[in-house]
Design goal:
By secondary structure, the chain is an alpha/beta fold. It has 20 helices and 14 strands. It has helices at 25-28, 39-54, 70-78, 93-97, 106-112, 121-126, 149-154, 170-184, 197-209, 227-241, 251-259, 273-280, 321-336, 338-341, 351-355, 357-360, 365-368, 371-374, 385-401, 406-423; strands spanning 2-3, 16-19, 61-64, 85-89, 128-129, 132-133, 136-148, 216-218, 221-222, 265-269, 291-295, 305-313, 347-348, 375-376. It is globular and about 65 Å long. This is Sugar ABC transporter substrate-binding protein.
Length: 425
Amino acid sequence: MALGSCSPGERGQGLYIQRFFGECTSDYGTATDVAKAEGECGIITTLINAFERAHPEARVSQNVVAWPGYSQLTAQMAARQPPDLVTMHSGVIPDYAGKGLLEPVEPYLAAAGLSPGIFTPAARQGVTWKGRMYGLPWDTHGGLWHINLGLFRKAGLVGADGNPILPRSPEELLSQGRQFRERTGKPYLIQSLVGDPAGAARILYTYMMTQGAPVFSDPKHIRLDTPEGRRVAELFRDVTREGIGTSNMDTPAAIAAFMNGEGGVYPTGTWMIGQFETEEKTRGRPLFQSYSVQPFPQLYGRNLMFVSGHAWVVPKRARTPAERQAIADYFRFMAARNGDWARTGHLPSVQAVIDGRQFLSLPHRRDIAVVARIGRALPDGVLRQNAIEGLVGEEMAAAITGQKPIAKALSDADRRVNEFLDEVQ
């Protein structure tokens, strides 16, 4: 398989795949046994190798981009030399589909013998724009509560069944957090509030959704400075002010603190499960046989979570019937192996995989499978979701840490996002 960028003269001579998830040809350059692959890079590289071996007629070439690769993709589209298949975050799909730069994938799914109904609701929503699907859903990912069970036992917050006792209301979050701090001398929540706007935005989006409050009044206008938004910000401001949660950590510091047993819960993504499972298996480490992972606890009325996902999209360009068939073959091959990707920690996009014995037998997956059902994305008409997440997260972190009054932070978030969206074409 060729690695690196394809020149204009090479376009149209095979299936050109462009992806992120890292480059690891030194370890997996010729590997085809996905059962022996580890991590995002190892698994995706091995899967693509296995596809090429099963479909030599596709003549696969591959370009591995630095994360996330969208500037390069935009330049390729401007030059009218886009790849055939591209990894894309579901929140970015509207930016490209809305400009007519992606193909709807229903014809490819039909040619592959795949019904849209095989995908989980969360995965399907993530690739849908104005009623059409613009990608093969690959996974669902979002925030989870990663938990140190050893500290939870010391705090008296583990039930008779061995599972952590999680709060079911804002009041319980504060009371359990105080109990944890008093009995362990450590913070209940390890929060990465420095340079990690995505984490703060996930909290605000999730707990506004659980109160039934729309984050956006319409695709061009966000509404965070509401009673529901202030309620969330006030809760996590109390957590931080009382020392129940940390306030001065960036992501590397928060990861290190959690792995070194310096707090009870680290709210971060599905992508950290693999690393923390390694700690769970390592004798002598604080998480040894003392790790649990759960969805965000239901603090308000509805059990929902903000999620995103990865997908395989098809940039629009003229293609021969053979090229279109190669894309359909790729979709069929990858959908059939969606369970292999689940070992990364991300949730599978195929409902039968979520429900299957192989997935549920993986460590901790039974506890988080519900996220594929309760996960919700932002409305599909919202553009520039990644940039918006950054603006929202900055202001939410300022509210949580007390750098700004809550009403000021949320109103500033509304103003900044809405002014930004007014300029988006």
